[in-house]
Amino acid sequence: MTETIEDTDNRPSLLLVDDDPTFCQVLSQALIKRGFAVWLAHSVDEALCAVEDDAPEFAVIDLRMPGPSGLVLVEKLKTLDSHTRIVVLTGYASIATAVEAIKLGATHYLTKPADADEIVQAFHCETGAAAVSIAENPLSVDRLEWEHIQKVLLECQGNISATARRLDMHRRTLQRKLNKRPVRR
Questions:
Q1: Could you tell me which of 20, 63, 86, 153 has the fewest CB atoms within 10 Å of its CB?
Q2: What is 3-123's CATH topology?
Q3: What is the pLDDT of residues 124-138, one digit of tens each?
């Protein structure tokens, strides 16, 4: 069930969607201090119910939640209001999901942990940064495997069985790999 943490008419509305209630509570308080009226939801379905009559001006969406992925919500929010500024925030970052989030209309894509100041700053990013540092070392084999699995999973629209078949991998092996946190490099 969604809840409104702060509902003041002159504050910009912000939808915060994450399946971790503690994380939501802490981040929502930080965003309230930065001038937002925050609505909370813990799933894509809850979020869609909350915004069906009134799209938020801003949204922070977790990528991986039970049920549909946060990418589904990004697409729906952009359909409701193309001006909604969306930051996708995830602990399961991959190149494939970052590209898809931006294609679907997200303003920015951040990996956890990210603080409230980084999120607010990301809302106002209008262009890319050519000065971003480029890693000197190539990705590790484990990270490349994670990236490839994420790409194929997206191509299979989140269907784990179809992804496992395309990767010539047992479904349970794929599920175990997906339940692990991605390797950093």
A1: 20
A2: Rossmann fold (3.40.50)
A3: 877 665 555 656 666
